[in-house]
Amino acid sequence: MHRSKLLLAALSAAALTAACAPVVGQNGFQAVDARPTDIVAGTDTRETVLTKLGTPSTTSTFESDSIWYYMSQVTEKYTYNRPQVTQRSITEITFNDAGQVAAVRTLGLDDGQRIAMNDRETPTRGRQLTIIEQLLGNVARGQLPRTEEDIPGQRRPD
Question: What does the alpha-carbon distance between residue 40 and residue 97 come to, in Å, rounded to a whole number?
Fold first, then answer.
């Protein structure tokens, strides 16, 4: 009897601790054969980078396709909490005009900046309406049908 209670307690403790394990997700670029850090500046070209790494996650918006980015991140989520980013890797590959790799830079989670979003509303220009103006604002704006000639989809004679 004592042994079955001990076994039941051990099983319930194991189930409770297993429920606390995080759900780990990996998003973005995942290296298969080569890593972005294997790219050598001055040796590799656009074609060799495409062959080794594949299509980049994104390209530069302002420098007409001269900077490629390979991005990935790992998140952990505990039961009802929001996912937390635990690892982030961004590899920036810069090409010169000849199409050769000019520089390779790797950025991590610590290199990013936190941006606090502002929850307030943007003020709009114009005047503020009172409650009575809001409630009675549309009264007498619309027109009721004047005659029986009003057929839906037809223009009213004025």
Answer: 17
- pLDDT confidence of residue 81: 84
Per-residue confidence (pLDDT) for residue 148, from 0 to 100: 58
Q: How many CB atoms lie within 10 A of CB 141?
A: 6
d(CA 102, CA 100): 6
- Position 104 scores a pLDDT of 92
Name which of 42, 30, 26 is nearest 70 in CA terms.
30
Instruction: Tell me the pLDDT tens digit for each residue of 117-133.
Output: 666 777 667 777 788 88
For tokens 């409770």, the residue is 16
What HEC string does the chain produce? CHHHHHHHHHHHHHHHHHHCCCEEEEEECCCCCCCHHHCCCCCCEHHHHHHHHCCCCEECCCCCCCEEEEEEEEEEECCCCCCEEEEEEEEEEEECCCCEEEEEEEECHHHCCCCCCCCCCCCCCCCCCCHHHHHHCCCCCCCCCCCCCCCCCCCCCC
- Average of pLDDT values for 133-154? 64
Tokens read off for 148: 């029986």
